[in-house]
Amino acid sequence: MDLSVCIATYYDPTRFGVIPKSIVLSRVLKQLRHILGTSNLTSEIIVVDDGSPTHILRGVCEAIGGITYIYLDRKEASPGYGNPARARNRAYQEARGRVLICQSDDVLMVNHSVLSNLYTAALAKGRFGIARVINTNWELCSIPCNHPCNPSLIELTGPSNKRPVFFLGSVLREYVYEIGGNDPRFVTPGREDIYFSDCLMKGLGLKPIYLETAIGYHLHHERPDPSVFTLSRDLYTKLVKEGTWRSQGAPWPYTLY
Questions:
Q1: Could you tell me how far CA 66 lies from the centroid of its own chain?
Q2: Cβ atoms 9, 71 nearer than 8 A
Q3: How far apart are CA 150 and CA 136, in angstroms?
Q4: Cα separation of 153 and 140, whole Å?
Q5: Model confidence over 211-246: pLDDT tens digits?
Q6: CA gap 253, 255 in Å, rounded
Q7: What is the DSSP letter of 140?
Q8: What is the assigned CATH class of domain 3-242?
Q9: Which of 53, 100, 214, 236 is 20 to 30 A from 84 via CA?
Q10: Single pTM value for the model
Q11: Where do the domains of the chain lie?
Q12: What does 102-120 look like in DSSP terms, one character per residue?
């Protein structure tokens, strides 16, 4: 199989204002299915629900169809929503594609060339792909633009803001397995995505390719209070000092399907 699109999600009705997560995820997945339907690449979509308090997101995936939906019991980890590392890892371990497309559940692929560009970037020797992701407000504009309804578009990642963060990115599955995915010691919000990229770059020597024409729109939402990031920030500082650049439990056994 060519690629696996991996999405970790969690239903919290308070996170996205007037747009319920069920609508957000539905729009993301419908667009993804449409783009995959125009591609010659063999693919799969894996959605891992990190213990949402209701099963509404399962219904979304079943209604769209053709999606592997996995529900993780939150009781097995910390109560309430913490960090998506565990759910992302489950998706990566379930994947069969040579290339992983790592996509946030609130990022909408915009153009049909997104997947092919990300796939090509991941196949380049010693590289991984980072899409151009623009922060915008879906509530105000169905297609983000520079009109008064949406005056401040911010590039979160891309050629103009070179941050190797996987809002929407691509990497060979074998590389992710070598570093052990996201470090499961991150159980509170933040920093797991930064350490994931650190492991790819400092641990494996990979370099990002920032893609101008692979575009995703990120749904703007308010950031949590900075205090919630304290534990993850402290853990990140500790791991950087250790400098092993591998997640706990690395490497994972790798099989080529």
A1: 19
A2: no
A3: 7
A4: 12
A5: 999 999 998 777 767 787 899 999 999 999 999 999
A6: 7
A7: T
A8: alpha beta
A9: 214
A10: 0.92
A11: 3-242
A12: EE-TTEEE-STHHHHHHHH
